[in-house]
């Protein structure tokens, strides 16, 4: 997430690569402001926002095929490739120079709710916050969410854009409890452009359906997200922890990310998660 007015006032440019993102972060930090704010507290689900960082960096440091191998446990969770991705995330999340704007040091990330994680942007206490598109709904009433507004968003940069720009996504599942024709008809309808367009008009929703009309998405961040999801040049992968066995993806990994934020080293964190995968 970005504070467009402050970006333009300072002359900052939206980073297009990971190196540019780190360079910008250093520049902001050198000016006396923490560039990043974050929060991963979420009740019983505390830790899940940090898994998104790991997934995003797995997609950016490795190939999509390696990402798939990681998700399906064809490579161990403590493989050096996974460690590389987590350490990359740590360049920001475990850097006291970069975080945690408005809240404290690195450890404050684990006690700051994900809903409140980005709010210091509005008080000029940080400039960037990594979250999913739905975070557009977390800003206080009266916040203008637009490219020329109080807050907006930009694509989380690839490490090497020449190798492609990956996209991390999650989604809704339609579950049938009966195989009657009318039940299957509803399921099929939910996958059509007609449904995507009618649902989009209700707001606060995005879709990767290529038949969805951008004009039906009123929220500027929703519109930007749909543009990214519909871009055929980008490689999309589903949220990795959501695809893993729940004991891992919604269990030891969530806890492991909290421990990692609170000071546990990468190798030990990943080995603990690996030992839980049966």
TrEMBL record:
<dbReference type="InterPro" id="IPR006059">
    <property type="entry name" value="SBP"/>
</dbReference>
<protein>
    <recommendedName>
        <fullName>ABC transporter substrate-binding protein</fullName>
    </recommendedName>
</protein>
<dbReference type="Pfam" id="PF01547">
    <property type="entry name" value="SBP_bac_1"/>
</dbReference>
């Amino acid at each position: 997430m970005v504070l467009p007015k402050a970006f333009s006032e300072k002359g900052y440019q939206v980073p297009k690569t990971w190196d540019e993102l780190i360079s910008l972060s250093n520049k902001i930090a050198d000016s006396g402001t923490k560039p990043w704010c974050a929060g991963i507290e979420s009740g019983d689900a505390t830790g899940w926002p940090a898994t998104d960082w790991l997934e995003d960096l797995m997609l950016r440091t490795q190939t999509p095929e390696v990402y798939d191998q990681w998700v399906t446990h064809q490579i161990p969770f403590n493989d050096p490739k996974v460690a590389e991705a987590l350490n990359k995330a740590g360049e920001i999340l475990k850097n006291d120079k970069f975080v945690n704007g408005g809240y404290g040091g690195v450890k404050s990330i684990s006690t700051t709710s994900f809903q409140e994680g980005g709010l210091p942007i509005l008080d000029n206490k940080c400039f960037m916050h990594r979250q999913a598109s739905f975070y557009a709904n977390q800003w206080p009433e009266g916040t203008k969410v637009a490219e020329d507004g109080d807050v907006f968003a930009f694509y989380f940069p690839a490490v090497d854009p020449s190798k492609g720009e990956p996209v991390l996504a999650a989604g809704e599942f339609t579950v049938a409890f009966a195989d009657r024709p009318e039940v299957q008809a509803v399921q099929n309808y939910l996958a059509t452009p007609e449904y995507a367009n009618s649902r989009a008009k209700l707001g606060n929703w995005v879709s990767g359906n290529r038949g969805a009309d951008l004009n039906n998405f009123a929220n500027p961040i929703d519109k930007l997200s749909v543009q990214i999801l519909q871009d055929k040049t980008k490689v999309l992968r589903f949220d990795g922890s959501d695809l893993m066995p729940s004991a891992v993806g919604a269990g030891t990994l969530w806890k492991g990310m909290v421990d990692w934020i609170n000071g546990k080293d990468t190798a030990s964190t990943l080995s603990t998660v690996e030992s839980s995968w049966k």
